[in-house]
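Regression test case RT-17, inverse folding.

Input:
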């Protein structure tokens, strides 16, 4: 077997797979279950106050192993999530990344103050594409940098800035976050998209648009990760369409140190992390690599 362990900002992951912030990760028990197989787990994006999210229908399953989701960041709020974090920490077998979201710079800081130091790392959700008032944080280098800088002053754990693809040049945002003190980048968030029921002629999602994830997003993620890796020195958690071990290898070759998984986890649950890790191990063996870490940035060396 190849060595699947990786070092991510001082955190040891037993394999490169990471539960991405999204539909799962809303309870401590789920985080513990997934941590048995995933290298790390990310909580739902937690806001200062509880949110119900958007009304159903808020998910559209597409034919090409892809999804549209417009969940609208449903979560119990930072104060109520404290107990879930305690449950997760009581038996998690992998590092826990706490995802924080705000609708102002001040809200990001307040959420980070409440829960940011309770996990092993923090992810700042700067780029949710289907909730008004959140996408803007990842579209301005100055605003993204301000959030990172202020959170870094109060959080003693590694801080990752989660960026979206809906910008002219994602590397410019990543560079600004790095200069502001970010320890890593998570790329990418889902991409704004829309689906129409041709039988009725109506838009399917109640929110109209949603975030595209799954196989259709992977080429976009690969391009963004490649661009970010070329311009920053901090590690990248690559997310977007990782449905197999080979998909994970592709994102890592583009520059990712670890790979986030969302759609696969929704479809298969915790077993997705075990399956993809096993497939990655077989790929490494077939290609003659001794460790998963050898894949990171490989495409930049040829």
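Golden output:
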């Amino acid at each position: 077997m190849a060595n699947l362990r990786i070092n991510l900002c001082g955190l040891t992951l037993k394999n490169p797979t990471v539960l991405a912030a999204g539909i799962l990760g809303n309870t401590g028990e789920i985080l513990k279950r997934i941590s048995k197989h995933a290298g790390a787990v990310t909580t739902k994006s937690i806001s200062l106050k509880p949110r119900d999210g958007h009304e159903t229908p808020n998910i559209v399953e597409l034919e090409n192993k892809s999804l549209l989701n417009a969940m609208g960041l449903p979560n119990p709020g930072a104060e109520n999530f404290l107990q879930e974090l305690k449950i997760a920490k009581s038996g998690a077998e992998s590092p826990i990344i706490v995802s924080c979201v705000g609708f102002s710079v001040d809200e990001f800081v307040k959420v980070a103050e409440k829960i940011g130091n309770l996990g092993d790392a923090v992810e700042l959700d700067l780029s949710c594409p289907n909730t008004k008032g959140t996408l803007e944080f990842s579209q301005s280098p100055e605003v993204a940098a301000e959030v990172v800088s202020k959170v870094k002053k109060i959080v003693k754990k590694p801080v990752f800035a989660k960026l979206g693809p809906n910008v002219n040049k994602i590397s410019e945002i990543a560079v600004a976050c790095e200069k502001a003190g970010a320890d890593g980048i998570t790329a990418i968030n889902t991409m704004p998209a829309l689906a129409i029921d041709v039988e009725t002629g109506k838009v399917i999602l109640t929110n109209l648009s949603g975030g595209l994830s799954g196989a259709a997003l992977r080429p976009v993620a690969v391009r963004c990760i490649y661009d970010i890796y070329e311009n920053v020195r901090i590690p990248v958690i690559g997310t977007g369409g990782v449905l197999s071990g080979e998909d994970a290898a592709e994102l890592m070759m583009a520059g990712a140190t670890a790979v986030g998984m969302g759609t696969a986890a929704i479809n298969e649950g915790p077993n997705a992390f075990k399956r993809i890790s096993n497939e990655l191990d077989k790929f490494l063996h077939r290609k003659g690599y001794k460790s998963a870490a050898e894949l990171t940035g490989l495409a930049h060396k040829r």
